[in-house]
Amino acid sequence: YNEEPVAFSQYPRPADTPQWNSDKPKLKDIRVMGYSMRTHDYRYTLWVGFNPSNFSADFKDVHAGELYMVESDPHQDYNIYNNTLHGGLFKKIL
Amino acid sequence: DGMNVLFIVVDDLRPVLGCYGDKLVKSPNIDQLASQSVVFSNAYAQQAVCAPSRVSFLTGRRPDTTRLYDFYSYWRVHAGNYSTMPQYFKENGYVTVSVGKVFHAGVSSNYSDDYPYSWSIPPFHPSTEKYENDKTCRGKDGKLHANLVCPVNVTEMPSGTLPDIQSTEEAIRLLRSMKTKKQKFFLAVGYHKPHIPLRYPQEFLKLYPLENITLAPDPWVPERLPSVAYNPWTDIRQRDDVKVLNVSFPYGPLPEDFQRQIRQSYYAAVSYLDMQVGRLLNALDDIGLSNSTMVVFTADHGWSLGEHGEWAKYSNFDVATRVPLMFYVPGMTSSSASQGKKIFPYLDPFSHVSDLVLQGRSKKMVELVSLFSTLAELAGLQVPPECPETSFSVALCTEGASIVRYFNSSEEKLEKEKDGFDDAYRG
């Protein structure tokens, strides 16, 4: 009850670069899963390796990341993932 | 003896609504519902694509538990025999009925909209649904095409009507029938628009002259966007009017004029949807059910209208995952019902001038996966227990806590905002 509410979303991808089935990959073709965590202040997303045969996501295999600050970047145009220390966020999304 | 439930779910509707601060759209009937409801400004889908989102909120489980990330598996066979929200109401004495697109049709709902588990009677699908992707759009050449942008003369359409018009008519018929039989009901109505093709009665174009339509505020692919995050909007590329543009893959861009036409037609489709919702709510009033029926209004996910150089859903961006979410609960969010006056008189999008006053707004971050537990609590049913870490063998539990506690959250006085402008937009 006291915890800050967080909204989680996710989206699958077949590869790291766009291809014709990037929008709607079939389960067997999913290789990456993007997990998003949203609070009032930010949206933090990790795109991690995903194994469709056992439905496991590997958070040690990070393909890319996104971090947008709501206050200064409400339209999510300026990804600051790369140049910020985000160990705390990484622990939180886990 | 428990409230009735009218659950309205809209396909691909982002919060392009007056009650969410959008200044361009004409959505008087949904705004009127909002004025009698608690409106959640920050509600998000678990995945920005139809079937996974719908199975998630209808079972109260996240996609990693339904194991549905595409359209090709049925959770009861593939993941676990999870009870659904309508099934739970059915097991608690409700007549549960589905009209239109509630579950995504096909494999993911066992080609049956999960009937008979979820529904008391076979779900209704409009007879004209099957023409959705046919060549019914008249092009500049006078021929019929399967276009993305598709304002139509309804009288020229197969059977002279459209799926959402038929859904509204059937839902009103069912309301009358259940009132007569004094049956407690859970009626789910799933509208197709503004899902593509953007096919709607052409008169709605008058509401949105093209000169008033701008591009998205950020119509370029962000420099630091990881390529894996980008959605190449493959589905709209397959529409006839997009194909002829020969837009390069994956980043386009679409010609600016066509971008504005898509945005214009999305807005027009939203006003067409608003008319359907207005007709349905007006009937709820006329039949005398609006003081004994709670109304939930939401969508399965949002839709990119050119932001980040993207169209459609299929991403983790807020524009693709954020949805409208509001709850009208007689006697709780609105006292009007007790005064015996009409609560939801039909408002004509072509003539009504917005005078929106919101009763209550919550800015809490909430998720569609909480719908099951929230509706159970509002209806006075036992709230399903929280799922254990692994719940594949648990038939009834939820991965989304009820959000009724936010209806009157003390630390956040329910906003009484005059112009409906939304903090999330202000941010």
Describe this entry's structure for a reader.
The complex is a heterodimer of chains A (94) and B (427). By secondary structure, chain A is mainly β. Chain A has one helix spanning 87-93, and strands at residues 7-13, 32-38, 42-51, 56-69. Chain A is globular and about 35 Å long. In chain B, helix 1 packs across helix 9 and helix 6 runs parallel beside helix 9 (256-286). Chain B contains twelve helices and 13 strands. Chain B is 25% helix and 15% strand. The chains are: A mainly beta (94), B alpha/beta (427). At the A-B interface, strand 1, strand 2, strand 3 and strand 4 of A face strand 2 and strand 13 of B.
Extended strand count of chain A: 4
Number of strands of chain B: 13
Measure the end-to-end span of chain B: 42 Å
Morphology of chain B: globular
Provide the spatial order of strands within the biggest beta sheet of chain A: 1-2-3-4
Helix segment tally of chain B: 12
Average pLDDT value of chain B? 94
**Proportion of residues in helical segments of chain B:** 10-25%
Q: Which value, in Å, is the CA radius of gyration of chain B?
A: 21 Å
Distance between the termini of chain A: 20 Å
| Rounded average pLDDT of chain A | 92
Structural class of chain B: alpha/beta
**What proportion strand of chain B?**
15-25%
Structural class of chain A: mainly beta
Q: Largest interface, counted with CB-CB under 8 A?
A: A-B, 52 and 53 residues
Q: How much helicity do the residues of chain A have?
A: under 10%
The total count of helices of chain A amounts to 1
The SSE string of chain A, one letter per element, is EEEEH
Largest sheet of chain B: 7 strands, mixed
Stretches of chain A where pLDDT falls below 50 for ≥5 residues?
none
